[in-house]
Structure formats: structure tokens, C-alpha cells
Write a structure and sequence with these properties.
Elements: H1 3-7, E1 18-23, H2 32-41, E2 49-53, H3 56-64, E3 69-73, H4 74-90
Antiparallel strand pairs: 1-2, 1-3
Protein name: Large ribosomal subunit protein uL30m
GO molecular function: structural constituent of ribosome
InterPro entries: Ribo_uL30_ferredoxin-like_sf, Ribosomal_uL30_bac-type, Ribosomal_uL30_ferredoxin-like
């Protein structure tokens, strides 16, 4: 599953007071106007998330670069972060032992 589909909003963003905006596409090869819009929103690197209040100007900026960003409400963002934390917690710790196991009797001539 691509990063864009993993975070895609399923509810209208007009209902939320705050929006979490994540840049999921890279900046190289994009139009200068799109890069300036992303920089104005505070998104300079891929997979970075910023928090903005839900205003008409921010929604217009999001509409301008909608193919490059993913918008989440506060509940969606918290649920995704909790799922990521649970996924990391399920993995057992990696233990590496570099010692040579001792054998009972080793007769070397």
C-alpha cells in the first residue's frame, strides 16, 4: 500500500478544528508555485507533518497541492500514531550474542 493511500482522509476536513498535513511526495520535479506553497505551510521534507488550524486559506493551499500531501484530523492522526507505536511494541528485542558457546570436552591434539 502506498503512503498516500495509507493516510488518505476518509471524513470531510471541514468538521475538524485542526489539521495534520503530511508531505508524502517528493519536491524534485514539482512546479515552483507548488514548492513555495509547501514551504509556506512549513513542509520542506518528505514524510514531515505540520499542524495548522482549519481555515479557508489553509484549505485553499491544501487544494493547490492535494496530490502531494495527506490531510488528517486530530483523531485520525492520534489513531495512526498509536497504531505505529503498537506495531513497534509487538516486535521482540533483537539479542545478538558474539560469544562462542563452551563445549563440555574438547580434545585438540
Amino acid at each position: 500500500m502506498s503512503g498516500f493511500r495509507a493516510f488518505k482522509a476518509k471524513v470531510p476536513i471541514e468538521w475538524s478544528q485542526s489539521l495534520y498535513i503530511t508531505l508524502v511526495r517528493g519536491l524534485p520535479g514539482t512546479r515552483k508555485l507548488h514548492r513555495r506553497t509547501l514551504e509556506a505551510m512549513g513542509l520542506r521534507r518528505c514524510h514531515r507533518t505540520v499542524l495548522h488550524s482549519n481555515t479557508s486559506s489553509i484549505r485553499g493551499m491544501i487544494q493547490h497541492v492535494k496530490r502531494m500531501v495527506v490531510v488528517e484530523t486530530e483523531e485520525m492522526y492520534k489513531a495512526r500514531k498509536e497504531a505505529e507505536a503498537n506495531h513497534k511494541a509487538l516486535r521482540p528485542p533483537l539479542v545478538v550474542s558474539h560469544s562462542i558457546p563452551a563445549t563440555g570436552s574438547s580434545s585438540m591434539s
